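Notes continue from the previous slide.

Worked example: a multi-chain complex. Inputs as given:
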Amino acid sequence: MKYVIAVIQPDKLDAVLERLTEKEIHLVTVSNVMGRGRQKGVSEVYRSQKEAGSLLKKVKLEIAVNEEFVKGTVDAITAGAYSGKIGDGKIFIVDLKDVVRIRTLERGHAAIG
Amino acid sequence: MEKRRRGGLLAGLGIAAAVMAASSTVHAAAAAPALVANPGDTAWLLISTALVMLMTPGLAFFYGGLVRRKNVLSVLMQCFAILCIVSLQWTAFGYSLAFGPDIKGVIGSLDWAWLRGVGAEPNPTYAATVPHTAFMAFQMMFAVITPALIVGAFAERMRFAGFAVFTVLWSTLVYDPMAHWVWAQGGFLRATGALDFAGGLVVHVNAGMAALAAALVLGRRDGYPERTSPPHNLPLAVLGAGLLWFGWFGFNAGSALASGGTAAGAFVATHIAAATAGLVWGAMDLVLQERPTVLGMITGVVAGLVAITPASGYVGLTGTVCVGALAAATCYVAVVWLKRVFGYDDTLDAFGVHGVGGMIGSLLTGVFALKSVNAAGADGLFAGGQGLLAVQASATLVAAAYSFGASWLLLKLTDLTVGLRVTNEEERIGLDLTQHSEAGYTALE
């Protein structure tokens, strides 16, 4: 099992969700986050004082999947979030030790989907 | 604006003389007796002026709550920028173009530019009982809010520089001539007998058609209509709608240009039309969408206020309720159905509410106007009056056609010179950060 974490541009969220649905990946947790990469953020001005390097709004997706779905998940995210410009985001894939479905107390592969 | 000439004014000269002593003395030597402002009328008009001023910040909040959070400041900024820009344009030459001595029914001359000759003494042509300055200031607030209404159509995608240039051009070449045609002595639409009590044509049809042109010239926002976010802060929009309703008493009842029966009648008509339209829109939501929505009710209120604007000084209670109900119904169709079918991105429904509401209000004035309510008006269709409806229809058509065509040209001109639209990147990040280097809300802390 893998835990896929993706940080993407907010306006690409709908496209990514659409691609995930096409690949029958329905479970996803989404949150608004702030972040910056090498491009830094857009600077703000407060009473004529420039405040550089502030953060940009991003969207974070978290998806727990069984091994056979990892490729589909990554493909869906890259296809949906791609623009070719700096700031498209990143995908982090980490090993997932266990999953518990609270309602049934199922664990592992059975609990994931 | 109501054509108002007070014959009995001079009878009140004794009381008013105390207030306007200086003015009286100056003119005592002249052959004609000087006009003296009436304190009650002046007080009401100055308060109305301040009420109408508050509508522009109110509109800013109404629009600001409806956009996405990354664009809230840009909308507030556009409204406040218009307050600053158009107020100066108006005093420099806009007022003179609109209300100055007539040139062939089309435009005012520049005789009153920089407010030359516009002082404490009333101008009998427009408002014989208030200082000319007060009339000018009252009209200034109308000139301010009208371009601010258009903001709703191009919100979330217009460059600030392009916006500022367009605003000056539009105020000068569209608003000022239109105000002259409909309200000024000698204006060709006023001469046809068209009734527009407080600006159904000059303000709402005018801004609404410009809004449609703006939506078409600028094109849709990225992601419209599949990915349109809901309003980011509806309570802010409700606050704005409340301020608009409050300010509208000055807009309509102030347009009587005097404190008295006509003002009181317009006051009540304004309120009841707003209440009716809000209720009808809420009911239509309930029937067609299963729930009455907050956004629906406040949009209905604004639609009612828009539609009663040209009629407010001329109609009775039945007319008022009918105008409110029909305004809600037609604007509902425009906002919910027409926009979707034709696919234009009128972001905050400036055309759907102000354009459509203004047209329906101007037409219905030709149906429900009563001479028994206001002798300076005329009898509409329901009172057996023939002809007024046709006059209203042709005036509406002229106003709509000129506003749409001229606005389209000015937008294209601005686009070719300064540029109208932000880049896709800027649109994605939001106008607050890219146009103003500020954020409406902090994300952390």
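Summary box: Residues 33 and 58 of chain A are 5 Å apart (CA to CA). The helical segments of chain A are 13-22, 67-81, 109-112.
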